[in-house]
Amino acid sequence: MIRITYHGCQTLGEGRFNGRFKLVLSFLRDLKEAIEAERYWEKYLASNDTVVARTFQGLFKNTVVCSECQYPSVTFEPFMYLAVPLPAAVVLQREVVYVSPPNPWDPLGRPAATAYLLQMTQADNVHHLKTELCRVLAEDGGGPAEVPSPDQLTAVEVAGHRVLHALEDW
Q1: 105 shares its domain with 52
Q2: In a domain, 42, yes or no
Q3: In this structure, are strands 162-167 and 58-65 parallel, antiparallel, or unpaired?
Q4: Residues facing 77 on adjacent strands
């Protein structure tokens, strides 16, 4: 049994309808909403017709359903800004080479260089990179005296075996 209602919860008719009629009703309801939206948009542009409005503004469709009779009320509101959630930051692996101070037991006094892969996101900054490197160095077996603090480290960008510039903490 299908009940056809109109504004004000008035019953227009009841009866048994086949699937095609339900499809036609759904199409007509969508068409009616599209016509109402177009009419509202043209009315809005009559007083706000600018390049910005035509390019960056739109209509937001609100649907409220009556809890007693299940009648859906549809309204349209113009919007300029729409909150869109940003996707989660992608985790990237960055290769970081840690150059330790010279080993006092090495007769030539050469520093040791060790490469580490750090998990970073695009939102991470240089200070986070230094903190993460200190954490990895502590896990790698360096005692508390051997692991520097993030403030003791200097991050530099290297290309072609040359230091391009030091990176600031930001």
Answers
A1: no
A2: yes
A3: unpaired
A4: 60
**pLDDT digit string, tens, across residues 96-108:** 888 887 777 777 7
Q: Indicate the pTM of the whole model.
A: 0.45
Residue 58 maps to a domain: yes
Domain final position from 59, 79, 99: 79
And the tokens for 16? 């048994």
Structure tokens at 135: 């954490």
Instruction: Give the count of domains, the chain.
Output: 2
Same domain, 24 and 71: yes
